[in-house]
Predict the 3D structure of the following.
Amino acid sequence: MGGMEIYVKKILFAGELMPTKQLNIWRKHLPEALYANLFGPTEITDIGIYYVVDREFSDDEPIPIGTACDNVDILILDENGREVSSGEIGELCIRGSFLALGYYNNPERTSEVFIQNPSNPHFPELIYKTGDLVSVNAYGELMYHGRKDFQIKRRGNRIELGEIEAAAGGIDGIEMNACIYDDMKQKIIFFYKGEEIAEEELIRMFSEKIPEYMQPDRYIRLENLPCNPNGKIDRKQLKGAYINGTFEESGRV
């Protein structure tokens, strides 16, 4: 570049949650840059929640998704449409002038997730049910716990598969990972891309990070994890390949 220096001043991460291990690598090499985790579904016209990284995190510690942007209002509701207490996990719902009115030519899906605000009986007010599970931490920041449809109940315990994935993020040698739940056999299946790690070693490392009832029942290493057109890990495809036993065709190693 003819001696010209290039400076990276801001790194903004969106689409998937910012992986802590990779964030720490970036911060080590570019310590002066600003890092921000951005969050928001298409239905609210992109980003609605953000977190500017302002402290240190260990590799297996999840990054907050943060606080609402201006003109964005959030509600965290339980299964009965009531706001949860501080620290409790509930579904993230959003309201505001930026909110879409629904899905084109899909009134059934629209009525499922664009609903009247249950805490407002006085006038029409749409909120959007994101399907994301969140809580508020001690800093007043939103923490992400995975998708509502990724939440399972096993052995009497409610489990967020995203918490298993977050714990795996701190294990050396694992580049990407995803969990699915085999409903028929009631087993948690853990997929990962990265170095080949003995199952006994994976069991030992997971036992140091998560309770026994959350630990996977099977570990599968893949050359690549399938992604959807948006670049996110396609868990439905993973589950379908596992249930149908087609991993030889999909790149199992």
